[in-house]
Amino acid sequence: MPSNGKKEPGENLIDKLRSIFSPKDPQKKKNALPPKAHFSIWYFLMAFLLFSYLQQYFLLGRVETVPYSQFKQT
Fold this sequence. Notes:
This protein is an all-alpha fold. It has helices spanning about 10-20, 40-60, 70-74. The longest helix is centred in the C-terminal third of the chain and has 19 residues, at about 40-60. The radius of gyration is 31 Å and the shape is elongated.
């Protein structure tokens, strides 16, 4: 690193990438509120699809195929 305090362009890029991808410290301030829960639409979508599948599997009546000749007798 140069002695004048300036960073090389590659070092600036690395620092920027670290700041973007590194985990954030949620409580940097002393009296800060705790972070809010993170909600993702993907959780809702997966829960909805799972619920729909389970409902279809467990709550639909069973369909029995009856031959026409047997149907005609009744």
